[in-house]
Amino acid sequence: KMKKISFIFMLFWAAGGILAGCDNTLDGSGTYEPLYLEVAVSDSLGNTYTGDSIVIPTDKNKIIFDISTNSGWRASRENKVGLNGWLSIPSKAAGGGDAVITSTVVANLTSKDKKVYYYILTTDSAVVRKIVIVQPHPSKQ
To answer: Which residues pair with 39 in a beta bridge?
Structure first.
């Protein structure tokens, strides 16, 4: 019985040492800061966007994502037929801390709206920002 108690104590002691060595911060300071991820969206035509669903002009443009975070992050866009020639993948797919990334959009000359899901998330996927980008066909604007 004493060996079992000693074993359990050693297990808790070892686990405590491992957890104490974990660093939950990007800067390595050892001070825990709650995880945050904020994304401001604008474009090269001078428009700013709010919300999780944005409608962009039909013109050629660059969509600018200003990322503010205390974590590692990664960015991607939905991968489906018709997107490669219309909206580029992010200029930088991953990083840590604050950053600015862009995607180029060509003019929508089709008779249909274009739509894509754009994702920016913390490396561990604890915080996800999903932005729906819609570019209407020219007759709608």
So the answer is: 67
Cβ neighbors of 138 (< 8 A, separation 6 or more) are 58, 108, 109
Of 130, 27, 119, 126, the closest CA to residue 74 belongs to: 119
DSSP sequence for 35-101 = --EEEEEEETTS-EE-SSEEE--SS-EEEEEEEEESSEEEEEE---TT-TTTBPPPSS-EEESSEEE
The closest of 20, 100, 31 to 68, measured between CA atoms, is 100
Q: Which residues lie below 8 Å from residue 8, measured CB to CB, with a gap of 6+? A: none
pLDDT (tens digit, 9 = 90+) per residue, 88-138? 888 889 999 999 999 999 999 888 899 999 999 999 888 999 999 999 988
8-state DSSP, 106 = -
Structure tokens at 28: 């390595």
Give the amino acid at 74.
Answer: R
pTM over 0.85: no
| Single-letter amino acid code for the residue at 37 | L
